[in-house]
Amino acid sequence: xxxxxxxxxxxxxxxxxxxxxxxxxxxxxxxxxxxxxxxxxxxxxxxxxxxxxxxxxxxxxxxxxxxxxxxxxxxxxxxxxxxxxxxxxxxxxxxxxxxxxxxxxxxxxxxxxxxxxxxxxxxxxxxxxxxxxxxxxxxxxxxxxxxxxxxxxxxxxxxxxxxxxxxxxxxxxxxxxxxxxxxxxxxxxxxxxxxxxxxxxxxxxxxxxxxxxxxxxxxxxxxxxxxxxxxxxxxxxxxxxxxxxxxxxxxxxxxxxxxxxxxxxxxxxxxxxx
Length: 274
Known about the structure:
Layout: E1 3-9, E2 13-20, E3 24-32, H1 36-50, E4 58-64, E5 80-82, H2 85-97, E6 102-107, E7 111-117, E8 120-127, H3 131-141, H4 147-154, E9 164-165, E10 182-184, H5 195-218, E11 225-229, H6 238-249, E12 252-254, H7 262-273
Parallel strand pairs: 1-4, 4-5, 6-11, 11-12
Antiparallel strand pairs: 1-2, 2-3, 6-7, 7-8, 9-10
Helix pairs in contact: 2-7, 3-5, 4-5, 5-6
């Protein structure tokens, strides 16, 4: 049985998925390298070695992502094609969530918003707030460059030491929002605020921003499901923060299994629909 490789070549990371026929995910892998071409070839060689597969077992390689433009011709002599990144984001989000329509939000260095409805995929825009924002600000605010350390610090954080809530600026109830809702991210940094509070505040800001932009994108549409993908979506704080945004605005936010590989999965899935 022949297999297909879906490859998402990002700015610093390449994500690859090994696909069997009938859209079955056999394996996933992530590789970082100093340049995108090295990352691509390393990812392909790595996943083949990991699964003890010869090159002849791969029928096609499907590329997507910003680094795909750097690749011309076939990879390792295997027939290679490219698909639009936003099409891949949409296809991957629907496949992993088992939905027919949704807003798919891809959170990487920045954040992309892709609407899939009535068989059409539309890239409706993006935000510069994403994983790059999180790492850039954490390096300055708490002198931490390691995302795992930021996540660990945030676990003991207290948002009341950094964020301003609606109840603190208004005595009037807002029908659509609870008084505990955020009025201003980092709008009240207390003198007692610790690095853990700042770390949680950063994560809260990034996910609330993505969540609220998703809410705006779904307004005046029939879409009620938001599928959040990408490496940033897999951080442990993502689900509870996004779930709370969804409760406020009658939307269902889902972070599916294999969310980090959704775009590579979507690229391979598109091959089978051609």
